């Protein structure tokens, strides 16, 4: 029996490998709860729906309220500007020392009063719960959920602490001067060391013993729809000092304040909010949280505990989304996919699978090439087979099922990334590629012909009439495939790793099913290009 017939015979003897008697294969990779989909699929979208009656009411109220409130707001800002100018006169934009003395004593109480007047002029009815901690008790406030530019009301209620702000914001006329009066921690987008410098500045101020004002931080780093708390960035927790959690609620029948990546624009939200008779907001100051020794060494642990406490008080879940998910959403939209297709819970995926932003962004391009033609931006079994240039077979269905973690019959981008990292990449090692090449190179001449390629794939997929000419032409530069061509294709397309190892699994199953006496495994030829010896049938599997 020659090598081609032997390969087909081995595949045929394995239960489920042939045509017609292929039953459902047991799952090869166990599921872990840590990779289950998040409780909130998309916290970055908000669609406020208004009925006809509400639209009519807002229209007629807006005719009166919008110009009046806009005028009052402008008046308050103009009144606040001279006091902000006095407070910051002769001070550099990036402060090296806190503003003290008579300037702060005179201007600070007036600016606090005008801050409250500003939100009152916009129609906000503010209720405050809890006690504001002193600088000695908690140098840092952490405010969540962050859902709108109106969240600045927490800064006013807390007594105008310093905030972290972009350097460009202090350049804005009128508003920039008011921001400088808060003695902000400025972040520069053009400075490659900006993140490190910002952290060092927060540490310096938080550990100054009350010399600097308290610092207010929105640890989520971006706006959500308040349906959950996303990942807290560790910046506010790195100093290892006590923090006071601050909760924000907007208990209104009509949501006119939420400013997310998908929804109303800044101007639309301002107009809608000004059209309402009043807008309720609750600011709750929770008890101060003091880090223990372990949390001082691990700010992520401290951030996680504080987030869980805040989520429990709000009665909402936590997810591992972060600002990078927003960037992926934008990229997905640019690739003609639904924007929500880019959501992967970046914090969890990057940490557990050791993937960085560039790696996940590259996977998004690959995913878009497969899913852009499908409805809803998800991959079905047909698109999956077409992308792999293989027919829908039992082995392919098994591979698809391993990707399809929630068993809804389609693969979303999150499942695609997890599948590549957990199922394919671990199996796509140099050793596996070498052994796979030897399997295909039946005549041991250092090259794979189309007939050899077709024989092994037919055997491993259980499809005797399989046409692989299209896939072969994509790999081969000529009439045959060299090891370097085979390796290059395998590394660029890790999805095929499971296909390459399927035949190895079939061989192993056949060998173990043989009687002990006379047991002989089908030989694996020693390849001229990759002469390393391999014992047994390696199949590098990794539990996710």
Summarize this entry quickly.
The protein is an alpha/beta fold and 544 residues long.
Task: Looking at this protein, list some descriptive labels.
544 residues, alpha/beta, seven-stranded mixed β-sheet, 45% helix, disordered C terminus
Spatial sequence of strands, sheet with the most strands: 1-7-6-2-5-3-4
Q: Based on helices, strands and strand pairing, what is the structural class?
A: alpha/beta
User: What's the average pLDDT?
Assistant: 79
H/I helix tally:
20
The counted number of beta strands is 9
What percent strand? 5-15%
Fraction of residues in H or I helices: 40-55%
Terminal CA distance: 40 Å
Radius of gyration, CA atoms, in whole angstroms:
31 Å
Q: How is this structure best described in words?
A:
This protein is an alpha/beta fold and 544 residues long. The protein has a seven-stranded mixed beta sheet. Strands 8-9 form a two-stranded antiparallel sheet. Helix 2 (52-88) packs antiparallel against helix 3 (102-121). It contains 20 helices and nine strands.
């Amino acid at each position: 029996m020659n090598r081609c017939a032997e390969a087909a015979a081995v595949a045929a003897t394995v239960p489920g490998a042939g045509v017609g008697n292929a039953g459902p294969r047991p799952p090869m990779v166990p599921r872990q709860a840590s990779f289950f989909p998040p409780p909130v699929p998309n916290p970055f979208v908000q669609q406020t729906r208004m009925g006809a009656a509400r639209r009519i009411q807002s229209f007629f109220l807006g005719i009166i309220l919008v110009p009046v409130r806009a005028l009052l707001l402008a008046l308050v800002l103009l009144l606040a500007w001279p006091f902000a100018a006095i407070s910051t006169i002769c001070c550099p934009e990036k402060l090296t020392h806190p503003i003290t003395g008579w300037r702060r004593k005179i201007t600070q109480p007036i600016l606090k009063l005008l801050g409250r007047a500003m939100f009152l002029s916009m129609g906000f009815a503010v209720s405050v719960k809890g006690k504001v901690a002193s600088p000695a008790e908690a140098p840092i406030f952490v405010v969540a959920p962050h859902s709108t530019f109106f969240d600045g009301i927490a800064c006013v209620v807390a007594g105008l602490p310093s905030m972290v702000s972009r350097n460009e914001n202090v350049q804005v006329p009128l508003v920039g001067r008011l921001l400088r009066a808060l003695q902000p921690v400025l972040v520069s987008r053009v400075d490659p060391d900006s993140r490190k410098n910002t952290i060092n500045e927060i540490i310096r101020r938080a550990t100054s013993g009350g010399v600097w004002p308290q610092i207010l931080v929105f640890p989520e780093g971006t706006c959500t729809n308040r349906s959950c708390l996303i990942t807290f960035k560790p910046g506010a927790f790195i100093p290892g000092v006590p923090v006071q959690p601050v909760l924000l609620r907007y208990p209104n029948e009509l949501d006119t304040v939420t400013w997310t990546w998908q929804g109303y624009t800044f101007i639309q939200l301002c107009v809608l909010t000004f059209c309402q008779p009043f807008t309720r907001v609750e600011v709750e100051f929770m008890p101060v949280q003091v880090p223990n020794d372990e949390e001082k060494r691990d700010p992520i642990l401290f951030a996680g505990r504080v987030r869980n406490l805040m989520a429990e008080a709000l009665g909402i879940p936590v997810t591992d989304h972060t600002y990078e998910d927003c960037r992926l959403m934008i990229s997905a939209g640019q690739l003609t996919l639904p924007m929500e297709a880019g959501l992967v819970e970046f914090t969890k995926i990057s940490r557990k699978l050791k993937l960085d932003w560039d790696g996940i962004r590259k996977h998004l391009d690959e995913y878009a090439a497969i899913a852009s033609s499908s409805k809803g931006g998800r991959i079905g079994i047909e698109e999956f087979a077409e992308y792999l240039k293989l027919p829908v077979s039992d082995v392919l269905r098994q591979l698809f099922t391993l990707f399809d973690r929630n068993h809804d019959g389609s693969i979303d981008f999150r499942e695609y990334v997890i599948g590549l990292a957990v199922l394919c990449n671990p199996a796509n090692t140099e050793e596996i590629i070498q052994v796979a090449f030897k399997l295909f190179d039946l005549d041991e001449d250092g090259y794979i012909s189309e007939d050899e390629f077709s024989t092994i794939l037919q055997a491993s997929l259980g499809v005797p009439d399989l046409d692989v000419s299209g896939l072969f032409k994509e790999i081969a530069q000529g009439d045959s495939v060299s090891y370097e061509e085979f390796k290059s294709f395998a590394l660029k397309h890790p999805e095929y790793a499971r296909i390459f190892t399927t035949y190895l699994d079939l061989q192993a199953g056949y060998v173990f099913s043989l009687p002990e006496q006379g047991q002989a495994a089908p030989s694996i030829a020693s390849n001229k290009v990759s002469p390393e010896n391999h014992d047994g049938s390696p199949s590098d599997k990794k539990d996710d």
